């Protein structure tokens, strides 16, 4: 009798939630100030090109030879372990999203825009940047629906160097 009740509880209306990317702060300066001088958990150094995995929140070295394992850089390795060869990273010093899919990568663009709705790639203009919820939803939807290959056309090989 008790086993039947337990089974009934398991079968009734399971609550499934769709996978989500990290919840990001509205102001890019919060991310930049926190991660700009943070040390990598693998090499214990401040990365020249820090990146944040938007799937799990891991902080990694982009293109860093310091964290290479068997000739593969840390971002590529992380994308293999975290996202089954799909990685979504926010490049801290550039405010740009990079997508890694297998042996390829592409620059997706930025989810942080200035007051005029423009990207500030590489943070050259120094204007305050704010999260564009619409762009972030589009990025998340492309990730959930596995449509990066169909939507993004500028893919290039990364040669395990990211």
From TrEMBL:
<dbReference type="GO" id="GO:0000151">
    <property type="term" value="C:ubiquitin ligase complex"/>
</dbReference>
<keyword id="KW-0862">Zinc</keyword>
<dbReference type="GO" id="GO:0061630">
    <property type="term" value="F:ubiquitin protein ligase activity"/>
</dbReference>
<keyword id="KW-0479">Metal-binding</keyword>
<keyword id="KW-0808">Transferase</keyword>
<dbReference type="Pfam" id="PF18995">
    <property type="entry name" value="PRT6_C"/>
</dbReference>
<feature type="domain" description="E3 ubiquitin-protein ligase UBR-like C-terminal">
    <location>
        <begin position="6"/>
        <end position="145"/>
    </location>
</feature>
<comment type="similarity">
    <text>Belongs to the E3 ubiquitin-protein ligase UBR1-like family.</text>
</comment>
<comment type="function">
    <text>Ubiquitin ligase protein which is a component of the N-end rule pathway. Recognizes and binds to proteins bearing specific N-terminal residues that are destabilizing according to the N-end rule, leading to their ubiquitination and subsequent degradation.</text>
</comment>
<dbReference type="GO" id="GO:0071596">
    <property type="term" value="P:ubiquitin-dependent protein catabolic process via the N-end rule pathway"/>
</dbReference>
<dbReference type="GO" id="GO:0008270">
    <property type="term" value="F:zinc ion binding"/>
</dbReference>
<keyword id="KW-0863">Zinc-finger</keyword>
<protein>
    <recommendedName>
        <fullName>E3 ubiquitin-protein ligase</fullName>
        <ecNumber>2.3.2.27</ecNumber>
    </recommendedName>
</protein>
<dbReference type="GO" id="GO:0005737">
    <property type="term" value="C:cytoplasm"/>
</dbReference>
<dbReference type="GO" id="GO:0016567">
    <property type="term" value="P:protein ubiquitination"/>
</dbReference>
<dbReference type="InterPro" id="IPR044046">
    <property type="entry name" value="E3_ligase_UBR-like_C"/>
</dbReference>
<dbReference type="InterPro" id="IPR039164">
    <property type="entry name" value="UBR1-like"/>
</dbReference>
<keyword id="KW-0833">Ubl conjugation pathway</keyword>
<comment type="pathway">
    <text>Protein modification; protein ubiquitination.</text>
</comment>
């Amino acid at each position: 009798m008790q086993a039947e009740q337990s089974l009934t509880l398991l079968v009734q209306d399971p609550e499934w939630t769709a996978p989500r990317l990290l919840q990001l702060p509205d102001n890019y300066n919060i991310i930049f100030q926190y991660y700009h001088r943070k040390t990598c958990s693998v090499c214990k150094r401040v990365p020249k090109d820090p990146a944040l995995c938007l799937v799990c929140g891991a902080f990694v070295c982009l293109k860093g030879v310091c964290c290479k394992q068997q000739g593969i850089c840390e971002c590529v390795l992380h994308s293999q372990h975290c996202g089954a060869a799909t990685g979504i990273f926010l490049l801290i010093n550039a405010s740009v999203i990079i997508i890694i899919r297998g042996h390829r990568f592409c620059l997706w663009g930025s989810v942080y825009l200035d007051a005029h709705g423009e990207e500030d790639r590489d943070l050259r203009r120094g204007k305050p940047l704010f999260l564009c919820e619409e762009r972030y939803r589009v990025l998340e939807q492309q990730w959930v629906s596995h449509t990066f290959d169909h939507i993004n056309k500028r893919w290039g090989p990364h040669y395990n160097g990211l």
